[in-house]
Inverse folding.
């Protein structure tokens, strides 16, 4: 059983940066595709970014392409999301997730963290 714990969220002004971390425990996540999703109030959960098992492939939602960077350190069993040039519309709860398929579909992910709040003020 894998447990994921996100951290690094908070309140930031528009144009600012945050770095989210997702620490895994229970077993290694080096064999899993890892993804970040987000859910804003009143909206459905949406894909943000995903990274393949050893980090060779990365994919981003159009809305964050060029501003966000996903990375992973399998030695630390941790995944990161560097968020730059933040906008008020990036405000959401951000979730880390893992699975075996390289997909933007949340149903492809088998285990999830509890989420961390990111709030961007204008």
């Amino acid at each position: 059983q894998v447990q994921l714990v996100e951290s690094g969220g908070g309140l930031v002004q528009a144009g600012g940066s945050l770095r989210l971390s997702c620490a895994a425990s229970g077993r290694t996540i080096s064999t899993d595709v890892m993804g970040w999703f987000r859910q804003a109030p009143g909206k459905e959960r949406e894909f943000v970014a995903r990274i393949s098992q050893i980090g060779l492939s990365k994919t981003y939602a159009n809305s964050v392409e060029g501003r966000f960077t996903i990375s992973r350190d399998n030695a630390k069993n941790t995944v990161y999301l560097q968020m730059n040039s933040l906008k008020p519309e990036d405000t959401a709860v951000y979730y880390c997730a893992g699975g075996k398929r390289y997909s933007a579909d949340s149903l492809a992910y088998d285990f999830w963290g509890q989420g961390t709040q990111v709030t961007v003020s204008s």
Notes: DSSP finds no helices and eleven strands in the chain. The radius of gyration is 13 Å.
